[in-house]
Amino acid sequence: MRNDKIFEESKLYMPGGVNSPVRAFKDVPLNPPVIKKGRGAYIYDEDGNEYIDFVCSWGPMILGHCDEDVVNAIKYTSENAISFGATTEIELELSKYICTTLENIEMIRMVNSGTEATMSAVKLARGYTKRNKIIKFAGCYHGHFDDFLVEAGSGVMTEGIPGSAGVPKDSIKNTIIAEYNNLEDVKNIFKKYGSDIAAIIVEPVAGNMGVIPGKIDFLKGLRKLCDEYKSLLIFDEVMSGFRVAYKGAQSLYGIKPDITTMAKIMGGGLPCGAYGGRKDIMEKLSPLGPVYQAGTMSGNPIVMAAGLATLKKLNENSEYYVNFEKLGKKLEQGIRQISEDKSISMVINRCGAMFSIFFTSDSEVKNYKDARKCDTTIFAKFFQHMLEQGIYIAPSQFEAIFLNVKHTEEHIDKFLQAVNTFEAFI
Ligand code: PLP
Fold first, then answer.
1. How far is the CA of 423 from the centre of ligand 1 (A)?
2. What is the pLDDT of residues 352-369, one digit of tens each?
3. Ligand 1 binding pocket includes 67 (Cβ within 6 Å)
4. Residues with catalytic annotation?
5. Side-chain half-sphere of 349: how many Cα atoms within 13 Å?
6. Is there a single domain that holds both residue 199 and residue 244?
7. How many domains does the chain have?
8. For the chain, what is the radius of gyration of the CA atoms?
9. Is the CB–ligand 1 distance for residue 240 below 6 Å?
């Protein structure tokens, strides 16, 4: 079997055989399929198996795999422009497109990943406010920057580790952890440390402890506290941006953050990230201001072209988001019905084209503590079953399941049929 052969050999040269931990399928536990190609809603592994893809490269492939416009943009640009490390018109085009289509972004800085976007946004907030502390929420994941690796979500949560080795205590002494969807907790932190809090960083729709939408009063309360204490509000929309709506979660909640971080979808599947927001804040960045942040590859022409093709297509086809809601609702209702019929305890959380199925007997999953109570053993069996049925979802209870524009009612029916045959494993 080529899948296993390639993965076994990969382990000789890459730690765990992978370049990002959760890909190793450690907690499900299986050898991962080795993916050879993707087309539309489908991916194919080296053994020739076909899967309907609900991972979508952990979010970016919202147009489906190898979308024609994105492929053409990459081909066309790469004929003449691979990398210059210099100013190009295509970086202006994408920056202008984002600033003119998203009200809360007046200026933007391109980087190469979500991690780079969030760590740079926090540095900018610290430089702007001349304060040190940040508030982050348990279960939210903002990438692998040291300051964020405390009670983080995503792979850190999947592996059940409180943080990461190699992070000096000094790096996290200015990180204060609060409970997601608990405004009182944040109020108390501000009472104690308010004058030294540079920023709150939050996923407005959390996707890294499974999907947990922020409650409107909680998020509005964060905005109010930041105004009161002159701290900055950073919305990490690396996952939710261009996904729950073209204009991100902030447009659904009607909240204006000071800084927004983006990545994933905005690079059309190529490595990218960005942070943007109020002009007076962004102008603190070097070379205009004193906050230094740089990157050889930042604003890479091919990435910019893929991102622009993706964002234009999403923005010009608002029916995509209407369809996400329609298919998402069908999935959500279908799974809920199956869970009732078969008496399997589940909670389904969904926001547009991202959702999670939590195996828990609680009636609600609203924070990290609730998510941690989920039965990961049942999830592992569920995952194995879904994969056998040709449905590819993230190999962790604490990740999101994503829709893309190539998914149809037929794909949703197949997903539901697969869920419906799960009882054999319980
Ligand atoms: N922020 C959020 C909300 C994310 O979901 C992720 C990754 O999943 C990151 C930041 C880090 O992004 P990257 O993996 O591109 O560094």
1. 34
2. 999 999 999 999 999 999
3. no
4. 141, 236, 264
5. 27
6. yes
7. 2
8. 21
9. no
